[in-house]
Amino acid sequence: MRKLNILLGVAIAGIAGFFGIKEIIADPVYFLELVLGGLTRGSIYALIALGYTMVYGIIQLINFAHGEIYMIGAMTALIVASVLGLWGWNSGVIVFLAFAFAILYSCAYGFTVEKIAYKPLRNAPRLSALISAIGMSLFLQNYVMLAQTPEFMPFESLIPDFQFWEPFAHIITAVEMSIIVTTVIVMILLGMLIKFTKIGKAMRATAQDKVMASLVGINVNRVISTTFVVGSATAAIGGVLIACHVGQVNFFIGFLAGIKAFIAAVLGGIGSVPGAVLGSLVLGISESMFTGYFWSEYEDVFAFTILVIILIFRPSGILGKDETSKV
Amino acid sequence: MVTKKEIKQSFFIALWFMVLTFPLMVIKVNTIKNIVVFRWTNLIWVGIVGFLASLIWNYFLRMKDEKKKADTKDNIPIVHRLLQNEKFRIPFLAAIGIFALVYPFVFPMYHTSIMISALVYVMLGLGLNIVVGLAGLLDLGYVAFYAVGAYAYALLNLHFGISFWVVLPIAALLGTIFGTLLGYPVLRLRGDYLAIVTLGFGEIIRIVLENWDELGNGPRGIGNIPSPSFFGHQFNQHNSVIYIYFIVIALVLLTIFFVNRLENSRIGRAWIALRDDEIACQAMGIDKFKTKLTAFALGATWAALGGVVFAAKTSFINPMSFTIWESITILCVVVIGGMGSAIGVIAGALVLILLPEYLRAVAEYRMLVFGALQVVVMVFKPEGLIQGVRKIYKFKKVEE
Amino acid sequence: MEPILNVKNLTMNFGGLKALDTVNLTVEKGQIAALIGPNGAGKTTFFNCITGIYEPSEGLVEITPPGKPTQKLNGLKTNYVTERGLARTFQNIRLFEGMTVLENVMIGRHCRLKSGIIKAMLRTSSQKDEEKQAVYDSYEILEKIGLDQYVDEMAVNLPYGAQRRLEIARALATDPFLLLLDEPAAGMNPQETKELDELIVWLRDNENVSILLIEHDMKLVMSLSDNIHVVDYGKKIAEGTPEEVKSNPEVIKAYLGDESEDA
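Output (structure tokens, whole complex):
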């Protein structure tokens, strides 16, 4: 069975590779554009997927409301930037404050959502927490829709078209480049946080064994809250960046982005931080290729198909570990 | 009752919510006209509601803890107690029966039409209840099977002129087949992955319907779907609505009848056992996968039946009727009504579907309230509005 | 005496950890056997390997049901193991909380019943008879185990000792020839333990089942068992009658620690 799977994989990769090489030679610039477009897309997925994977690693819950946190980040940035813009503030200050408020508010929402919808259900059956998460997601979406508007709102890019970037701008725009660079920086910072700081160590310990962690004096509740806050912060950064890139936001953008990011997290191996990044990049680039060379209208179908295939053949993802349930 | 400490705490929580909701609730920007409006009254409302909500929340949380400590003696819901009471049961059921019977003749067509929608949700809810409530499988793509049924009727009728009554069993079969085909690969997955995969499947079906013009006209949909005939006789529009109403009533009764039998059968018990503890269930000799698959496929069957009725009622379908929101609405019906409780689901469907129809003022808050209710129900009353009760076997009379 | 369970060289690896290392064990018909050892010695892992919850890394698990040929259990899913006549209870009670006591036992009958969905929906006469029989059988088991006063209670509302007994009743309902009991006396008071002792012997004498149990209550183990197997760090270190095991220096060392080292 396993051999057959590998064989099948190699065969598909071979056919795709052969086809791909032909296409690449025909139009290498287009191919490069697709790769970079995919990289940008993947970076955004990665920023969101981190929140999913860290939360899942610690409390084994799919935080359905995570996509909404990302949307709230983008919305807050839009509102702050618009108000300050009307007041005639300096654009540099606006960029800084828009990002700062977006992150702050997303963190606050993430924190609050956990306290309301998940904390009381920590010892309840998994199904209950999952339904609560769906309810939260539904609530936040409609809250933003009713408080603001169901329409798309245009989002003026906060990131200027840098002068020095002019020569490359026909392949990758300044915004796209900023997305990739920002993501890399965030990843490095996050990696350091998890690896070297005290709270990072506490997070890893809690992910491994909650009871044991609390016995050695780790405040598990605080670790869980921190995880939500950190995940929300990266999602907010993703939200603002994507809003700059696409140029519009509405209350619904979090839904699909959230699901795609979750797929990326599963693809990489849920619970694993490097896995989430890798999975996001793989999903972003392959999605970009698929829409570029095949059918663009079936973009979402492609992502879901990847999810189903991964879950059936390798549920632990690219970097995930196998787990055996305890009895 | 409420302590000083709680009031103080609620005050700070209210403040927290005022800060939290400030940008979204107070500021409203119009980026096209470049206007910013500050809606300060909203801030006051958030403060008041936040304060009260926090007090109530804490109170219920404390009640829940105390109840847990005291005793978990099951308090049987009043509806069940009334239904178990022989003296009450017959008049009660008779009253409902008579009401259902005269309803379409007393009320105008508009109300009958709304009632049909609500009853279709009762069917869908009872079907999904098998999957989510009894077997504990979170299916977020239930609407896909609903679409299968609706499109089966529309297409089979369009191309082959097959009538409603013939399509009904065909669609049920198609639902079962689709349910099995999807269930086969995904039911081996851990529970929470199932939610995402089914959600994905639901979206795939919708996207395919939207883009595959040759199949069902894409987003333009299929129109002129005939309403059911009565032994070849086609009713006029008014009578046709009444006719469909009775068909739905019959189907709902049939559903209740079957689900009730299933619930207290070997398979039904296995579903519930699986929901409660998978490992113990397998150790009792139950095939986990097969049992899950039967629940999933059976749920799909009911969704397909509902789809056929829906298509016949609206006489026009397009992919927009089968979005994820439809799945979530059905899920809300089951969760809020009471997972695993047929009476709960029926009550849930009627309340959640009829109320927004008649309270137009609050209709736009429908989904907001649904979302909030899901959280509240899960936190405080996971068994839902009306809890299910297990059958009490009367064997002692037989044996002794 | 004929062996009904035969385990040869059973090994279970978790990553680099050897939870079980070439364990051999035989249970004979009509025996009450015990598997003992310090915490974390691999006893529950042993049960999980036999019942198909884990797939053993190496080794052979064979059963010989009374009057049937010998068959291999390796790689069989849990439910098939149960179908073949091995039933178990769990160390941490795992009852079906949303069901009544009677229904819990009826779940145990599941694999001996046949009616499917269609029959249940149509409620055919064969289905009705089967259900009636299942209710009757389940009630009878509850009577035997002494739980009949709780029949219609929800399983969660039972007192602790009764919950443990219900686990046994549920396992018994699957018609096993070998019962695997995982710490049946854990958390019981002396009175309850004494009743359990009597119940286990009664089961062996009247229900035609053999028993393999994991237990920490040494008094219970010594009074009950015909044969005791001792494991430590995943390895089997001793086997024999209660007297033999009691005086085995290896066993004393495993339980009390190596005194020469401590000194």
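The radius of gyration of chain B is 24 Å.
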